[in-house]
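Handout, section 4.2: multi-component inputs.
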Amino acid sequence: MKNKNAYTWAGLSLLIAGGIISLPAYFIFHLIWLTALGICMLILSFILVALGKTIPKLPPEVCSLLLETGIDNIATLIEELGIKSKAIYLPSSLANKYPRAFIPLHSNGSRPEITKALPQRLIARYGSSPEDIGLLISTIGSTATSMLESKPGATPDELESALTSLLTGKLGIADSTRVICNNNHIQVEIHRPRLENGASWSHQCLGSPLATVVASVAAEAWDKPMTISQEVQVNGKYSVELEVAK
Amino acid sequence: MTLYNRYIITVALFLLLTTVILIAVGQNALDIYLSIYIIEALLITELFVYFNNKARRGLAYVSTILFGGFIITLCLQIVRILA
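Output:
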């Protein structure tokens, strides 16, 4: 009884109320409309109980705690190293097993070209020059991408479907998404996001948690490195612009 | 509003609206109410395609129960017509 959530409690309440209303209404009072209302309650109760069983047993507060701790650790690392360059989101084909974010330690204005899979290490080398090193880190997007049932396709519709399925269906952190592709730019609009976006140094480097999810999924869909070029939040709509590496 | 809440509110609204309309037109056959409720619930469930696997599996059980109820109602009607 400890792990029952609001959906299960509401479902059980409706089940009892539905039974109490429909049975006397049909057999004693012979009121069809009241019996029908009782049946409505029973149908809703089945749905609520079924959905209640799918809610994770871990309380949202604990999930939030784990998320904040993870973000805080990455933020500390990035701030300590004084990294200012923007993260490059790599697909699984370039980052071993699952998509990750690569942050070059030295930036001379141009974006590093990563053509082969990087080793699965925190500090990874991508070129022959001594300065061609960077941090290869997992973000929320890296883990979130593994929740997708299959690798998303590269068309805007397929990417939109994958993002909606992930952000709305699986994570429940947004109402819907919209994807607009324009040459090497992908614009993703997230409607009514429910994840807070900070404004720390690490966010300027990695992007907000929502943007990291979008960038990781897009990198995996296009099978190309991506960077977050812009993030804007206006009137309950969060807009993320990605730039595809050539 | 989360997807779960949106789905539950949609189902509840449709069922309630159907009840009001059927009462307004003076419908007095319980099997008609039941059939419409079940069809509506199954259709709305199918329209919400972005549910996660666990939720989809849970709702599939509910859909099976509802479909079973619909078949029983249908069979009872056929028996009544034939008798």
